[in-house]
Amino acid sequence: MSNRRSRQSSNAPRISDDQMIDLVGKLRHLLPEISERRRSDKVSASKVLQETCNYIRKLHREVDNLSDRLSQLLDSVDEDSHEAAVIRSLLM
């Protein structure tokens, strides 16, 4: 409870209920798992936020996997080749 009070007393602007509803609605449309459901299906804000966290974790894993694959590919090509330069630019 004291943690909640300290967050509320911070200098951050307070988000209204309408703004929160709007933001959760926007997140809902961005999430593949939820946006595929019918519009009439009710999904709680906590479910949307949990799915958002899961989706971000999934995207991080995909980025890590792609980075690893590009690194492996870079190791397999001539260091001075055009392909190596393209791969290096993708890793930046």
TrEMBL record:
One of its GO terms (cellular component) is nucleus. Pfam families: bHLH_ILI (PF23174). InterPro entries: bHLH_dom (IPR011598), HLH_DNA-bd_sf (IPR036638), PRE (IPR044293). One of its GO terms (biological process) is regulation of growth. Keywords: Growth regulation, Nucleus, Transcription, Transcription regulation. The keyword Thylakoid does not apply. Coiled coil: none annotated. GO terms for molecular function: protein dimerization activity. The keyword Glycosyltransferase does not apply. It is found in: Nucleus. Residues 4-59 form the BHLH domain. Its main location: nucleus. This is BHLH domain-containing protein. It comes from Thlaspi arvense.
